[in-house]
Amino acid sequence: MKRRSIKKWIIGTLLIVMVISIGSCIGVKSQINHHLGAKTEIVDASVFKTLSNPIAITNVNVLSADCSKMTDSLTVLIKDGKIQSITEGNVISNEYTVIDGTGKYLIPGLIDTHAHLKKSKNDLLLYLANGVTGIAEMFGTKQHLAWRKEAEGGTLSPKIYVATTKVGSRKGLMRKIRKWFGAQHNYTTVKKAQKAVTKYKEQGYDAIKLSSFLSPEIYHAIVKEAKKQNIPTVGHLTYDVSLDDFYDSGQTQLAHIEEITKSTMTEFGGLYTDNTEDYLKYLNENADAIAIKLKENKIVISSTVWIIESFPKQKFDLDNFIKEIELEYVNPGIVEGSRMGKGWLPGNNSYENLEIKNDPERSKEVKVFWDAYAKAIHVMARALLKHNVTIIAGTDSNGACTVPGFSLHDELTSLSNVGLNNEQVLQTATRNAGEWMQNNTGRIEVGFDADLVLLNNNPLQDINNTRKIQSVIINGNLIDRSTLDKMLESVKNANDRSRKVSIDTHL
User: Fold this and answer.
1) Does domain 55-166+236-492 match CATH 3.10.450?
2) What's the confidence (pLDDT) of residue 362?
């Protein structure tokens, strides 16, 4: 009798533990989904009407393939989603809808090479409304592969390049548990890492995304296997691999200029508040040699300059800084955060330095560090430019205070401020990006996909004119200004209806 009671007690206890565990998992998953934007009302993209091709844009200024000049008074014919011809005048048949391009400037659709869609499908509309017709998702999931397939099938969306979730080699039970909830995937043996590359290739990913936490053995095994299977390796420079080991590793892209400067900080012995000038001098002395090696090994660098420039502002003046961004368009879950992670708002921002906010002296001291951290990006960017390293525009969108779509224009402005001329800036978001993604976009040439932006002002005169959008063409279908505005308004309204926290004081 006593044994039966003990058995019942044990079974009952196990059942209670199981119920609590399941409930906890459901709660955690719910919080994560909110944080990733999955609980926001989704806008029905099918309600937005486009002008289907064939289309003729007449008397328009057209950006050259190398982005160096505008040629005026051209006619561009678009049919079957492709650029059919670019001529001085043309006899246009009745099958074409004519768009008068007088006084307008036609450029390739812009491409953001470092995006994070998370679970925010409304972001696809934000990209299009900002003239971004191509994105590279840099923490991809099967959901993003499905969205890519929908885009290929004609759903209103930019083209989507999908890299895998970040892969690492960290050990431990918590790493495995975190994987269940969407964290990076870890592979602790060479055999497992090689199998993972095969699996990702078969699933249809465009690239393998490398994390900062890879042992040299696993890092080189993944890169070697990926090269063998003809799938690019992109992303971070792992902390345990030096620049010298990286150059000829076979990794074809770095996801941030910051990856280079962080490595030089390690080589220097660390960046601290009292050695910033010495470090910047060290970087200036070594930046050219680094850029030369990157060029020799044909390594492409995604920029993400603006977000680094924002760090000092987010840390020390977030209340004012957040009013500068288009907060109303950002998925509320991402802005608000959750119990599982911080969002963007003051008091709950992962970059905000609350500990020293009310200590002026300490704040001033720490600000010296972060200003130097941002300056280092500028130093390295200028060296990359000087030695013709391929730079592609990337924003880390949905990173703290980096608004999808809008952030690419911010990035282009930052690249201009770093020292790229307007021709070079446009190359980073069009020609260079299209070539890196190995797709048929990024240039206005016969046979290329008709992913285009019609601007009211010339971006070669002022790079901020990329924001002056008259219409966007994706896969040969034209979205006019009125429809672009409706897309933005619909996302804003969906966000407003989905908020748990008011943002009125931050607008």
Assistant:
1) no
2) 82
